[in-house]
Amino acid sequence: ATNPIPIREALKLQPGQEVKVRGWVYRRRDLGDKAFVVVRDSTGIIQSVFTPESKSHSEARRVTVESSVIVSGKLREDPRAPGGKEIQGEELVIVGLAENFPIRRDVSREFLLDVRHLAVRSRKMTAVLKIRHTAFGALHEWFRENGYYEVQCPMFVSAAVEGGATLFPVKYVDESTVYLTQSSQFYLEALIYSLEKVYTVAPSFRAEKSRTRRHLTEFWHAEAEAAWVGLDGILRVEEELVSHIVRGVLERNREELALLGRDTEKLELVEPPFPRISYDKAIEILQSRGLNISWGDDLGADEERVLTMEFDKPFFLYGFPEKVKAFYHKNDPSRPEVTLSADLLAPEGYGEIIGGGERIERLDELVAKIKRFGLNPEDYRWYLDLRKYGTVPHAGFGLGMDRLVMWIAGLEHIVDSLPFPRTVARTYP
Ligand code: ATP
Ligand code: MG
Ligand code: MG
Ligand code: MG
Q1: Which of 115, 85, 88 is nearest to 103 (CA)?
Q2: How far is the CA of 299 from the centre of ligand 3 (A)?
Q3: Which residue's CA lies nearest to atom 19 of ligand 1?
Q4: Is the complex ipTM more than 0.90?
Q5: Whose CA is nearest to atom 8 of ligand 1?
Q6: Neighbouring C-alpha atoms within 13 Å toward the C-beta of 392
Q7: Could you please report the per-residue DSSP string of 328-369?
Q8: Percent of the chain at pLDDT above 70?
Q9: pLDDT tens, position by position, 123-159
Q10: Is the CB of 329 under 6 A from ligand 1?
Q11: pTM flag (> 0.95)
């Protein structure tokens, strides 16, 4: 007997050849005395048809959706079949007969999340996961080709990076309270003193209380930090990196994007340089569109959505007021009320995917700002040490990988960008 081959390969063979494939039953129906079994594997789907003359006609009639099977027979042309070819079924071996599969067309979104461990088999989820795979791979490619060292940072931490409101406390071994990390930034900053350019890809945890389309409580965070780099330099890194990832997906995942119904026209435009607009200008635009917002306010998803309508590619928003950005952001020496920070917003309504900028390098400036923010310098002892021993100008950023995938794949909700989402409402399955 021949060995099983991937369905994608089987569909490329000439009609008349014997083939064997294995996978899971995607669809099954009877038409007169013929049994049609569509089989799915990680590479695609193929139809097989079993007539009463074939050895496994009765197996083909009784096999259920999502059963695992091995199917063999002769390939033949059929314009009505997916992929234009089908298997004239000879043998069908049932490896694992599935019970009545709970997922049907009419089930609710909530139910699909309850059975996520089964829903991950869907062709759409498979397509998203393949795109996600490309995105993570392309990210590593870009950093490694551009002289960044990959490092790993702890998940248990003792201080807040992004503010206390979203901290997850954990009872530690000695009964003291520690927290799950909100960002690896401070650790990356410590590592630039030896490696100069570093990055990491890890989960970050934030106890986000509001239910939005773009917040998870555990998300995949790609963060980078570089010595001797300023705001302009780090924005160039961000635009090159994001463009490289989008290019990679366009090269390798056309089929998946099509299956998801993603219009790729706007993705084709993702090439550096990205437009840059100031926070001041953004406020003017928002006010002229009738939004009730004034200088000094933070921008939320609604404001960002309005701004994304002005551009058909990702764009930077820079020069945020001191108050709306975390304490470690460096203030603009020529205009101290604003920071040398920038967010990267994805177009088509998606909004913030990256936050970044220059960090404060001087000890006195950092201590003063920590106090201005009502925080205690004692809590940041080791972070302050970094400014005492050979401080350097440096900059960095954090990219939300789930948000990046959400935008590239054209998804409506962030939970659909990863297999097992964690949100305020869900930690199961
Ligand atoms: P937002 O304004 O949407 O709450 P943020 O400004 O708090 O985001 P940053 O601290 O700048 O986020 O984190 C860097 C990046 O990490 C963000 O640009 C975003 O892509 C991603 N990110 C932040 N929080 C979340 C979350 N809860 N779920 C998914 N991704 C997130
Ligand atoms: Mg936030
Ligand atoms: Mg933000
Ligand atoms: Mg941000």
Answers
A1: 115
A2: 7
A3: 400
A4: yes
A5: 352
A6: 19
A7: TBPEETTEEEEESEEEEEETTTTEEEEEEEEBP--HHHHHHH
A8: 100
A9: 999 999 999 999 999 999 999 999 999 999 999 999 8
A10: no
A11: yes
